[in-house]
Amino acid sequence: MGEATATTPALPRSLGYTRWMVAAAEEYRRLDDLLRGLAPDQWLAPTDCAGWDVHDVVAHLAGAAVSTASLAELLRQAWRAHRVGGAGDLVDRMNQLQVRDRAGCSAQELVGDLERSGRRGVTARRRIPHVLRSIPLPFGPPLGTRPVGYLTGRVYTRDAWMHRVDLARATGADLVVTPDHDGAIVEDLVAEWAALHGEPYDLRLCGPAGGHWTSPPGAEEIRLDAIEFARMLSGRRPGEGLLARHVPF
């Protein structure tokens, strides 16, 4: 574990929609770099996503990217998942369909699919008018109702970012982490986590994506690696106390 980033304790800041679109484009670029460096056997490696290997994760990412590029495709995937039924909620069933639809694709085909669909998806998400981004969607507890822009900005981008972490861990590939990109995503994550639990905290995250946030001063310090913090909040790694409070990815 590296040393924590030297910062003055402060309240974490959330990203706005424009920044999320910049982050989304950069995230697909980093995913493309990682995937093009994988050897054939690495595509069979199991990941932290239960039951999914690297090929499955990339198939999901490609299918999800396609759904963000076209409202018709999003509705088609949702309708198919609704008709198929099965375990999990509608999003879980959509994810499984994305994986099954691309089960026969080669690694090269998946990389090309993700690159094209990711680029088209970010362009489409950027063009969503503010009035449409403000339409409320029911997410269920603990989030309740959130606007469309919460899904198309924050959640879609976080999902791609967290899966890049999954892929790097599964394959041993280099996980590129920088303060401007990953650090901003982590800080937004801290802001939502803090708003959800509403308790005093003193959080010191280590590594290039880390920082130091506290509200109000005097709470017991929580200190860990920034990426591991994100893995806990996504449910990929167990956490205790405030670190057991998950946020959407």
Low-confidence stretches: 1-6
| Strand and helix order | HHHHHHEEHHEEEH
Enumerate how many helices there are, as a single number.
9
Q: Which CATH architecture?
A: Up-down Bundle
Q: State the fourth-level CATH superfamily.
A: dinb family like domain
Share of helix, binned: 55-70%
Could you tell me the CATH topology label: Four Helix Bundle (Hemerythrin (Met), subunit A)
Number of strands: 5
Query: Please, what is the oligomeric state?
Result: single chain
Percentage of β-strand residues:
5-15%
Distance between the termini: 24 Å
Strand order of the largest sheet: 4-3-5
Shape, principal axes of CA atoms: globular
CATH class: Mainly Alpha
Mind explaining what this structure looks like?
- With 249 residues, this protein is mainly α.
- The protein has a single domain (17-244), classed as Up-down Bundle (Four Helix Bundle (Hemerythrin (Met), subunit A)).
- The chain has helices at 17-36, 54-69, 71-84, 90-101, 107-126, 130-133, 148-171, 179-197, 226-234, and strands at 136-140, 144-147, 201-206, 211-215, 221-225.
- A 3-stranded mixed β-sheet has the order 4-3-5. Strands 1-2 form a two-stranded antiparallel sheet.
- A hairpin with a 3-residue loop joins strand 1 (136-140) and strand 2.
- Helix 1 (17-36) packs antiparallel against helix 5 (107-126).
- It is globular, with a radius of gyration of 18 Å.
- It starts with 16 loop residues before the first helix and ends in a 15-residue tail after the last helix.
- Mean pLDDT is 91; it is low at 1-6.
